[in-house]
Amino acid sequence: MLLALAGCGSGPTSPSPVATACTPTASSARAASPAFYRPFQGEFPTGNLFDHDKPIPFGDGNNYVVSMCGARVPDQPQVNGHNGYDWRMAEGTTLLAVADGLVMYAGLEEPFNCPPLGRTVQAIYVQLRHRGPDGTEYITVYGHLSRLGVATGDTIAAGAIVGWSGNTGCSGTPHLHFGTFRGRDGNFVAIDPYGWHASTPDPWESDPRGDASVWLWRDGEAPGLR
């Protein structure tokens, strides 16, 4: 199963201060199942966040985005429907496996037209499959890479190099797009690896196409959101 990247042809934005004002941690998440190490060393500025309203790239657009804090923030075209997290980083930054897993795919996505760039594009990306501590299966996606460090079918350990960041595909600024999908009834559904931290219901969990988000980071491993 190959999973799509979310388009961000104008490059990552900076999240609104209200988007992460709840200061998310494992203890504040509705659910937590720590399994992931960070996908890179160090800290990088956060770009686009996971849209809890409808994390469906190029579909179901509206005029707002909902963050993991339950904050409704103004829509920006590259954020609305975003199904992962973006971190702005120099091309060639080393990217690491967040957990032991199997390389489901490493290569180019199918070519498609990227309206913001006005041309047909293909991103280099890696898709890994993991099993959480409770047996739940997850897929992680590393998008817009400059080059690969693994091949389809490889078995890799947490911390292994999966590739190097870049600016390929529907992207206007060098960055990493990191997506997480949770196995459910034979399918994989996009979820937020930072979980849900508001007292109100998560709109994506309530959507028939959605699922509950889970804090998946091990202690001290969650990349900062800034």
Tell me about this structure.
It is built from 1 helix and 15 strands, in the order ββββββββββββββαβ. A hairpin with a 4-residue loop joins β7 and β8. The strands form 4 sheets. Strands 4, 5, 6, 9, 10, 11, 12, 13 and 14 form a 9-stranded antiparallel sheet that branches. The mean pLDDT is 92. It has one helix at 203-206; strands spanning 32-36, 64-66, 72-74, 85-88, 94-96, 101-108, 112-114, 119-121, 124-131, 137-148, 155-156, 161-165, 175-184, 187-191, 215-217. Helix content is 2%, strand content 34%.
Q: Which stretches of 5+ consecutive residues score pLDDT under 50?
A: none
Helix content: under 10%
SSE order, one letter for each helix or strand: EEEEEEEEEEEEEEHE
Largest sheet: 9 strands, antiparallel
Strand content: 25-35%
Summarize this entry quickly.
This protein has 226 residues and is mostly beta strands. 2% of the residues lie in helices and 34% in strands.
Topology diagram in text:
Layout: E1 32-36, E2 64-66, E3 72-74, E4 85-88, E5 94-96, E6 101-108, E7 112-114, E8 119-121, E9 124-131, E10 137-148, E11 155-156, E12 161-165, E13 175-184, E14 187-191, H1 203-206, E15 215-217
Parallel strand pairs: 1-15
Antiparallel strand pairs: 2-3, 4-13, 5-12, 6-9, 6-11, 7-8, 9-10, 10-12, 10-13, 13-14
Attribute tags:
2% helix; 9-stranded antiparallel beta sheet; 226 residues; 1 helix; mainly beta; single chain
